[in-house]
Amino acid sequence: MLASRVLFRVRTTSSRQLSTRAATILNALDLPTNTEIPGVYDGAWRGSGDLLESKCPTTGEVLGRVKMASPKELHEVLDKTREAYRYIRSVPAPKRGEILRQVREALAAKRDELGALVSLEMGKIKTEGQGEVQEFVDICDYAVGLSRMMNGRVVASERPGHSILEVANPLGVVSVLTAFNFPVAVYGWNFALSFAAGNATIWKPSETTPLCAVAVTKIIAQMLEKNGIPGAVSALVTGDKCTGEAITESRDVDLVSFTGSEHVGRIVGKTVQSRFGKVLLELGGNNASIIMPDADMNLALPAVFFGAIGTAGQRCTSTRRLYLHRSIADEFLTKLRRLYSTVRVGDPLADSTLLGPLHTTKAVETYAAAIGHLRSIGAEIITGGERYLDSPLDQGNFVQPTISIPKSANPADKIWRTETFAPVLNVGIFDELEQAIEWNNNVPQGLSSSLWTRDIRNVGKWIGPAGSDAGIVNVNVGTSGAEIGAAFGGNKSTGWGRESGGDAWKQYVRWSACTINFSDAAPLAQGVDFSIDT
Ligand code: NAD
After folding, report:
1. What pLDDT was estimated at residue 8?
2. Of 135, 259, 389, 435, which one has the greatest count of Cβ atoms within 10 A?
3. How far is the C-alpha of 521 from the C-alpha of 162, rounded, in Å?
4. How many Cα atoms occupy the beta-carbon half-sphere of 532 within 13 Å?
């Protein structure tokens, strides 16, 4: 994966004519269409590193060339973010909330334009692109409220005349390393909480979605500058794997919030731990839906369809495993196949499209390898399994959504244990709920899971101690598509991180227990007597 990404770095520049389709979207967001785009921001825009080439997954067109940060620039930006942190930590939290409210307004005003850029550069369909920007807007709303509610606690002391306070203070510099598949929202989840908590944030986006990052940073920067806040409070360093490594290793970064693959997350986690930094990991998912005989099929079918095909199977929460009760399996699969046959494939910017392209040609290879493996283990491919090769789909990374029935549902085979980031759904047939729960849990990942039933006894099992071990445990709701209010994240090899709502904000602050003595004596805790003659 990484090797191919490096290929996106180019050293040559050539003049080119951008399609009207792309130019309209870039112009609406103030992104240059005929010059190289500076990809570094810390109050001023620049970039003197290599060029990153942003390619449209639908047409193969080069959308823009972005100048990434040189190693020297990265260090300058880290210095600037430290300075910016010293400033922002003393701005009262509700005042920070007011600035976030303005960022929220500015993002909402550009929701459709930014959403279109997500579709253009990442490849997800229009409504999902807009939804992603809406998620950023929503988390800003949440963080505006939070800016008046990031409360500590007063704890009862066993010593007379003493009080214990649990105090939250800003943490420092937070670096956000993001994946390609949510090129706007994941930064939003992190930035909104980090800013409300009084930190400076430095963003290293995926090397294949630099334009989304530049566009979002421009919108935030305008609001910061309008309020006289240092721009490095929301700094940007576009870059590649090496930039990510340098950030991860830097002692100038207090928290690394990483969203990406398990493979890279393992490296990032170890590196940050080894220097005793804080790390938040949001890694791969391998999510299952379980359909019981009493499930409402009219609800379950479209949810599985969206879960498996939405974002062309490139969501961390995409449905990758489908466990069907034997008594309804044939009927469910017949109806699901029918739905698959109706899927509207094409330009993600067209209103009617439901299935866009995969993000890169490398992802197409990953898809083909997974299909090849399924065939080699004798799985029955009941639909899909090929690329779309007719014009105009042959210009982009379009693959057929696939349903396969491997011979065994035993999670020991890699097809059940590995996240294939493409629209491939593997089906297993079960007889008892307990068996399906065991299959659900017996994989390395633990992000999202979904049970379809009307029986309250099944619900109790599913959400209880012997139930799903994932971070997201849904009932009559698909695996894909979470709201911002609850903490979002997964267990096990998904990394145990939590972002967005719930108590996730508590990770973006440093906690101190402060014992204060208001009395004229200084007793020790637990009655320890260390009296001396004075
Ligand atoms: P990736 O791991 O290839 O890249 C993620 C980021 O890490 C990129 O910015 C990349 O430049 C950077 N990077 C690469 N090597 C690095 C290194 N050695 N040190 C530091 N940074 C490095 O992931 P991807 O292909 O962009 O995204 C897809 C993956 O992300 C999937 O596994 C998906 O499930 C996961 N994801 C998880 C969540 C979640 O919330 N759990 C959300 C979105 C995506």
Report:
1. 39
2. 259
3. 10
4. 3
Q: What is the pLDDT of residues 3-58, one digit of tens each?
A: 333 333 444 444 568 999 999 999 999 999 999 999 999 999 999 999 999 999 99
pLDDT in tens, 163-184: 999 999 999 999 999 999 999 9
**182 Cα nearest atom in ligand 1:** 43
- Between CA 432 and CA 439, with CA 438 as vertex, the angle to 5 degrees is 95
271 CB within 6 A, ligand 1: no
Active site residues: 282
**What residues does 404 pair with on adjacent strands?**
381, 426
Kindly give the number of the ligand 1 atom that is closest to the alpha carbon of 248: 20
Q: What's the pTM?
A: 0.96
Task: Answer whether 120 contacts ligand 1 (Cβ < 6 A).
Answer: no
Residues 6+ apart with CB under 8 A from 137: 104, 107, 108, 111
Please tell me if the CB atom of residue 281 comes closer than 6 angstroms to any atom of ligand 1. no
Instruction: Read off the pLDDT of residues 401-413 as tens digits, 9 standing for 90 and up.
Output: 999 999 999 878 8
Q: Which of 54, 68, 180 to mutate to test the pocket of ligand 1 (most atoms within 8 A of CB)?
A: 180
How far separated are the first and last CA of the chain, in Å rounded?
A: 70
- Burial of 462 by CB count in 10 Å (0-12 exposed, 13-18 middle, 19+ buried)? buried
